[in-house]
Write a structure and sequence with these properties.
Elements: E1 3-8, H1 13-22, E2 28-34, H2 43-46, E3 58-59, E4 71-74, H3 80-87, E5 93-96, H4 106-113, E6 126-128, H5 131-139, E7 143-145, H6 149-163, E8 173-178, H7 193-196, E9 201-202, H8 212-223, E10 230-235, E11 242-249, H9 252-262, E12 269-271, E13 289-295, E14 301-308, H10 312-326
Parallel strand pairs: 1-2, 1-4, 2-3, 4-5, 5-7, 6-7, 8-10, 12-13
Antiparallel strand pairs: 8-11, 9-10, 11-14, 13-14
Length: 342
């Protein structure tokens, strides 16, 4: 059986990444693509790297007949996604790549995103889309909320360690570098080549980054008590990739063994040999996560580093992995492509 797929917001980076992945999926076909300003254009004109694919023309959302669609990906900005999803058929399976349904508490959403939640009636049915930890719920879900790419990276590094009680919950520091595509495709002065290249900078310093809402929610739920981490993201002059470096208290060797055990059956998570650390180079363009653990020179401290591609495993690849589960398919379909190197 071939499932008909719609992608809303197909003119953005995550939309294009979804098209790239689904193009070779054996059980999905792209039946509809939407865009706002670029409605009426061919995808080949918006993303020339996709010109070889026979894709539908970009249209406005209200031009799509959703009765013909089996599953819809919403690659729309936050706030817009809530408004759009509220109007879609209540039986339609949806994977939302925005932030609009990630936070279970609407008040937490208002705090971190600066506007009131406009779809509180739908929020309770949304399942948090970190596949490896919510797999069974995702398979039964109608609406899945994709994680933030930074939040996903940090959780892959630390969730099993928090669950096993192996680290000091009051002494977690995370430094993270991320590629510029994580900021989206809209024109921004600070993302111009002359402004960004040959340098790096921290941003949202001091605990203001929106993905902290996800860390607070998820780590606290796992620990059974409030957990707040110190977190500083840094913008790096690279197109793709996230590298999260976590400084924690505990025994490094025990942590490594716990991560190996936690991810032993996971097709997309690779725990490196003890002492080895990952690189964004080695996961680029793929749905894989690489995790490394090393002991610090200070006894009783360890460094855990995780790398993934923000557009693939951090967003569109994760979304496709979840969609596979929602449609009763093997979750690896369309996602086993090797990383692109160099």
């Amino acid at each position: 059986m071939t499932h008909k797929i719609a992608i809303l917001g197909a003119s953005g980076y995550t939309g294009a990444e979804l098209v790239r992945l689904i193009a070779t999926h054996p059980s999905m076909t792209i039946a509809a693509l939407s865009a706002d300003r670029k409605a009426g254009m061919d995808m080949a004109d918006v993303f020339p790297h996709l010109r070889h694919l026979p894709l539908p023309t970009l249209v406005k959302i209200d031009q799509i007949d959703f009765t013909e669609i089996d599953l819809c990906f919403c690659a729309l900005p936050h706030k817009t996604s809530q408004e759009v999803i509220s109007k879609l058929p209540k039986t339609l399976k949806i994977v939302d790549l925005s932030a609009d349904f990630r936070l279970r508490d609407p008040e937490a959403y208002a705090k971190w995103y600066g506007n009131e939640h406009s779809a509180k009636d739908i929020q309770p049915e949304a399942i948090y889309g970190l596949t490896e930890f919510y797999r069974d719920d995702i398979a039964k879900a109608r609406l899945v909320a994709g994680t933030g790419c930074n939040a996903a990276t940090g959780q892959f590094a630390l969730r099993p360690l928090i669950a096993a009680g192996l680290i000091d919950l009051d002494e977690i520091i995370m430094d993270l570098i991320c590629g510029v595509s994580g900021a989206g495709r809209s024109l921004k002065e600070n993302l111009l080549h002359a402004e960004l290249s040959e340098g790096s900078n921290g941003y949202a310093v001091g605990g203001t980054h929106r993905h902290l809402g996800e860390f607070d929610q998820e780590f606290s739920a796992v620990a059974g008590r409030e957990v707040k981490i110190q977190f500083t993201p840094h913008l790096a002059p690279m197109n793709r990739g996230i590298l999260a470096t976590c400084y924690v208290k505990g025994d490094a060797d025990t942590m490594h063994k716990a991560l190996v055990k936690a991810y032993s059956a996971e097709p997309f998570v690779e725990v490196l040999p003890f002492g080895q650390t990952p690189s964004t180079h080695h996961v680029r363009g793929s749905n894989f996560v690489h995790i490394g653990v090393t002991a610090d020179r200070i006894e009783g401290r360890a460094i855990v580093i995780a790398a993934l591609d923000n557009l693939t495993k951090g967003s569109s690849g994760q979304a496709l992995q979840n969609a596979n589960l929602m449609l009763g398919l093997d979750e690896t379909l369309g996602l086993m492509l090797a990383p692109v190197f160099p």
